[in-house]
Write a structure and sequence with these properties.
This is Oxidoreductase family, NAD-binding Rossmann fold. It is built from 13 helices and 23 strands. It is of the alpha/beta class.
């Protein structure tokens, strides 16, 4: 107990945002993971990041006790504060843990992507159940860490890709595993996002920080930069330090039935391309190819090597032969096509409304669990069950963690496209195996766009060349700002 408590105390005391002497005592030091509850008992739930998606999730959990609300932007969070007037309000999740740790059973986390892992990881070590919005994490390492911590501390976890609890995903899995379309060697998926600004030069001037925003806490483990209203709220998704672009935002919805239905693991090869790639801001449009090795069989389905293609920014796959003329491929923000040897399976965003290109309607056994509760309330159910008897919700970290590694691998492929080659990936070791010691990479700081006499000119400003291996390693596992740290990998 002593070592764990000291580690936590050191973590808190290193943060300038906390007063001296504040400590968090892990729940495991007081008897282990929080005990299970009867279904009629209410969970005490805290929300961290409650101004946007977090508010929507918490409203779906109103049958429970919402006891605390934490946000770095109290103007953006006002609707949640007003809706849950009895909940105690915080700027800093660490102080919330210190003051209310004993009375919090579970957390809903919907902050910017770059702070997902640090909040969730420390919550898990305190024995808290966690509902974490997508993308699960900002990096491959963070996803691996949450996967292992959830397994170690036996808490109930759920990623906020709500389509995982829908009928469409269950049908897709059943159709695939009943061999309805044959062997799948290619999958194409796309989204119509971004619908927030991307492909932007970094602002050259800072602005005064609003009184209602704690900018230092928003930055958290990232590198400090001057405040500008272009970064937050919501627009954080388009900035590499805070978000993962359209791919990280929507692939967690659209690729989930692909990962689950085809029993994917780690890719072995990845390659990405995009519109102008900037140092700070995600591109306007991206394309990625990930190759997964043969995986034996699952159900009646043989699982050969498969290539998974991703498109965003308005790009779509070419329509396959036999596509119904006039039918829009975009269904609720995107879509996915499974190309099988016998047929093509098509579905919309979130895995919704699957259908076969042939027009045939499969009748197959229902082998997947149907979730009658909401995505959020199914997690609540799991929180109240003992670890030994728990029925996992539809997107627990033991699945969502490896799946999110696939998602952020697409981000890596795009950000490393300047190496001009297909990258080979060792998933177990979390490293690229074909980046040489002497290879370098550089990125565009600003595009320098001007028009002279009617002619467009790009006087690009580039970074100095840096070690490609070091650059890739930093993308795989970020170096956190001083005062911020993750728990050790189990």
């Amino acid at each position: 107990m002593g070592k764990k408590n000291i580690h936590r105390r050191e973590f808190l005391q290193r943060s300038a945002a906390l007063a001296a002497g504040v400590t968090i005592i892990p729940n495991v030091a007081m008897g282990g993971v929080l005990g299970h509850k009867a279904p009629s008992d209410k969970l005490n739930i805290a929300g961290v990041g409650v101004g946007g998606r977090g508010f929507a999730v918490l409203k779906g959990l109103e049958s429970e006790n919402i006891v605390a609300l934490c946000d770095v932007d109290w103007k953006y969070a006002k609707k949640a504060f007003d809706h849950f007037p009895k909940a105690k309000r915080y700027w800093d999740w660490r102080r919330m843990f210190d003051e209310m740790g004993d009375s919090i059973d579970a957390l809903v986390i919907a902050t910017a992507d770059h702070t997902h892992a640090i909040i969730a990881a420390h919550a898990i070590t305190l024995g808290k159940h966690v509902y974490l919005e997508k993308p699960l994490t900002h990096t491959v390492y963070e996803s691996r860490l949450l996967t292992k911590l959830a397994e170690k501390y036996k808490v109930a976890t759920q990623m906020g890709n709500q389509g995982a609890s829908g009928e469409g995903v269950a049908q897709i899995v059943e159709w695939l595993q009943n061999n309805e379309i044959g062997e799948v060697t290619k999958v194409e998926a796309f989204t119509d996002r971004p619908i927030w600004p991307q492909g932007l030069n970094r602002p050259e001037q800072g602005q005064w920080v609003p009184d209602t925003l704690n900018w230092d806490l928003f930055i958290g483990p990232a590198k400090m930069r001057p405040y500008n209203e272009i970064y937050t709220p919501w627009n954080f998704r388009g900035w590499w330090d805070f978000g993962t672009g359209a791919l990280g935002d929507m692939a967690c919805h659209i690729l989930h039935p692909v990962f689950k239905g085809l029993d994917l693991g780690y890719p072995t090869k990845v390659q990405g391309s995009s519109t102008l790639l900037l140092t700070d801001s995600a591109p306007v449009a991206q394309r990625v190819r990930m190759t997964f090795p043969a995986r034996g069989r699952k159900g009646k389905m043989k699982l050969p090597e498969v290539e998974v293609y991703w498109y965003d920014g308005g790009l779509q796959p070419m329509k396959p032969e036999g596509w119904p003329a006039g039918k829009d491929m975009n269904d609720s923000g995107g879509g996915v096509l499974f190309h099988g040897t016998k047929d093509v399976l098509v579905a919309g965003c979130y895995g919704k409304d699957p259908w076969l290109l042939s027009g045939r309607k499969p009748i197959v056994p229902k082998t997947e669990r149907r979730i009658t509760l909401s995505h959020e309330m199914d997690w609540v159910r799991a929180c109240k069950e003992s670890p030994e008897n728990r029925l996992e919700p539809s997107s627990p970290f033991k699945e969502a963690g490896p799946f999110n590694e696939m998602v952020v691998m697409g981000v890596l492929a795009v950000r490393l496209q300047g190496l001009n080659k297909e990258l080979e990936w060792d998933g177990e070791k979390m490293e690229f195996t074909n980046i040489g010691e002497h290879e370098t990479i550089r990125t565009v700081i600003k595009d320098g766009f001007e028009i002279h006499d009617g002619h467009p000119i790009f006087n690009k400003t580039w970074t100095d060349p840096v070690s490609a291996k070091d650059f890739a390693s930093e993308l795989i596992r970020h170096t956190y700002r001083e005062g911020w740290s993750l728990p050790d990998m189990p």
